[in-house]
Amino acid sequence: MRPLHDFLRTLRGDLESAHQHDPAARSLLEVALAYPGVHAIWVYRLAHRMWQVPPLRLAARLVSQAARAATGVEIHPGARLGERLFIDHGMGVVIGETAEVGDDVVLFHGATLGGRSMKRGKRHPTLGDRVVVGAGAKILGPVWVGNDAQIGANAVVIADVPTGAIAVGVPATIRRRSAAVPFDVEVDDPAIYI
Prior knowledge:
five-stranded parallel sheet, alpha/beta, UDP N-Acetylglucosamine Acyltransferase, domain 1, single chain, about 20% strand, six-stranded mixed sheet
């Protein structure tokens, strides 16, 4: 029973994260019923468990593709996603097979955690904890994005982003956040740094 309890706790964490981060969310019930980003994450969590059992990998891919058709969010079941992930709006988000995402991350619509190579092995990004990825941003290749980093809307990140930094532009350049004015995900949007 413990694995089921842990799984349900994780699903509730995703639900509460969406409710907390979206000022338009009126209730947990509304989020559970009407948020495609949450639905995509929940289906991913099931498909990821299936992916851990090699004979179920094809079934896991089929489940993830059904979620893609229903939500517009494509998450490969082999990706590793942390706790309390929030995908706002969802449409167009892509998370590749070898991507790793830390805890308390926010991804806006159109964000891509993609590859730059067709070779096997680690080819997708690794995001630390509390990272915010703006709408339309592309993080490509096996790059590392440090804890508390912010990726501006439509940025194209092809190199590592240090902890606490802001990456904006095409290709992305790094800006340091002023300690006097800390970023507040509840108020600020990474697009303001464009």
